């Protein structure tokens, strides 16, 4: 598994629950180190062990832990770059959904060696979409539920999300019911990031 994924799990644990909780998880998973290197690759089993130990440490199902991780990846100030990458997908939540079909290609421009999950969004009927996720990490779809929920809040949309389970092909399926596109005021977003003070 790419180090960025492991590093994201580590940062989520550290930023949300504290350094000591993360260190306990790392110790219980017999990592032999406290920090993942973002640009290295690690055996998939290490990632699975860390996820299992983290969920047990927090007394949560792994699915809930992954959903919380997905929310963190979009909403926490320490990972603003991920939110920016996703917000470039469109001016409203519907445009954002369709942009997920191209996310793998956009992410590869920045990180060519990242094994990016394959995402496919289909319009099923009025206001209903189906998101299919294919990933090397089992349960990635639950993280996408968290991402979708946080992005809906970011855009000010009202959605109902449901993880439908796994298809025979191994893909995870999420149903997205878009109830209202402008339910609340979304978070501010500018295409260009301001650097330094006023010019």
TrEMBL record:
Name under which the protein is recorded: Haem-NO-binding
Transmembrane regions listed in the UniProt entry: none
Name of a matching Pfam family: HNOB
Origin species: Celeribacter neptunius
Lineage, top ranks: Bacteria, Pseudomonadati, Pseudomonadota, Alphaproteobacteria, Rhodobacterales
Domain Heme NO-binding intervals: 2-157
PANTHER family (UniProt xref): GUANYLATE CYCLASE SOLUBLE SUBUNIT BETA-2, SOLUBLE GUANYLATE CYCLASE GCY-32-RELATED
Domain of life, per lineage: Bacteria
Signal peptide range: none
InterPro entries, sorted: H-NOX_domain_sf, Heme_NO-bd, NO_sig/Golgi_transp_ligand-bd
Molecular function as annotated in GO: heme binding
